[in-house]
Amino acid sequence: MVALHTTIAIVLVIALIVRVRIDPVISLVLGSLYLGLASGVGFVGTIEAITTGFGGIMAEVGLLIGFGVLIGSLLHSTGAFRRLVGLLVQRVGSGRLPYALTSMLAVVMPSIYVDVQVVLAAPVARSASPFIGRIGLPVLASALGCGIFAGYVFVIPGLAAISIAGLLDIRLGDWLVYGVVIGLITALVSTLLMRLLFAAGGFWNAETDEELDEAMAEQEAADRDYLTGEAESAHEALARSESEATAAEAAQGVRRLPLAVLMLPILVPLLLIAFGAFAELGGWSNSLIAFLGDANAALFIGLLGAYGLSRASAGLERTNEAMEDGFHTTGEILLITGVGGSLGAVIEATGLDAVLGDLFRADEGAPVVLSILLAWFIAAVLHLAIGSVSVAAITAAGIIAPILDSLTVSPIVIGLAIASGAMFALQVNSNFFWMFKSLLGLSTKGTLKTLTLVTSVASVVSLPLVMAAALVL
């Protein structure tokens, strides 16, 4: 009966989000209440499980999420990410641009929320697409979507990655190395496969797959001029765009600091976390190294740096606005993450861990492979139903966390499998889908051919990489 009530609770959450369009926070709490009461946990026990589950996950990842979002918001105010994307377009050349773009989004940009990433990168993808050729737009759109979500689920401080690690009690330093490698390889291989698909011909039809507004059409015409020599060259156009952006920033009172300096609040925390993890593995860690390598301390150091750089570059007023924006985003994310932890705590209180332990445990054959596939499948089904990568990842981790001790697989491998499944087939029930469609000038059909397909490809590509990680963990 416990398994039945758990299934009903998850279906209830999905139905409330998808059909009734109730906010995920309310839906998850209602699902938790139903499960606790229906499974015999009782009124008091259910409320205790919800509150302790919320507090437990907040203790694990609350500060990490808050610090990560604020760092991204502050650096956004300095224009650092826009400059980074612009520099990328100018330096790598059109042939390598899709791979450079997806790599940057996967490895460098996860500190900022996915909605902000697509707002920053979509104009670059549109304006650079004519320089690649006829299939430039679908290739760059796919690279953009894949890079954003590979970073979001695999790479610290991507919010889904932090949430999964927190729910499964995985040290971020341990997750970091495997997440970066799997996330980067997934983004690159998926982008290559999509490019080969579009290059084969016949799959992309600009007339039905693109949906330009007037402003975008004018930009397309200008870009064609650049390519045919009727106007300035592509590099001159990009340089002019950068010059205009510099003038606009100067008019707004933004002081341009060196880009390498502006990236330090992202790079320094990652290096500190990695250094602390390697020091512990090597047996030469001490209290100072452990303190600096702690993810909370490292990200707070990054936040201090981002705040100082924002004050120096954008001024006090814009810095305060960036902080307010970051607090607003953080609150929403923390609530969803926290109630995801609540659902996991209620599941644990019902005693479902024994049932799931039997499901995940294989007597013969390949128990590791079976466990990975089940974790991937649970996350993928939840994402298809709910339409939110983060909610699917959090819910899947909450379901599996209670039985981790009974598995023969490393928690990191299970977490990576959840991450892999959680980005499967991002489609029409996601708000991001429609934002992506509008910003890139695609039709619904074109968005399905790019964003939905590339996240499906990336999810499948990353699965054998997770299995390979299981060989060394």
UniProtKB/TrEMBL annotation:
InterPro entries: Glcn_transporter (IPR003474). Residues 205-251 form a coiled coil. Keywords: Coiled coil, Membrane, Transmembrane, Transmembrane helix. GO terms for cellular component: plasma membrane. GO terms for molecular function: gluconate transmembrane transporter activity. It holds the Pfam family GntP_permease. It comes from the Bacteria. The chain crosses the membrane at residues 6-22, 34-57, 63-85, 97-120, 140-168, 175-198, 259-281, 288-309, 333-356, 368-401, 407-429, 450-472. This is GntP family permease. It comes from Nocardioides eburneiflavus.
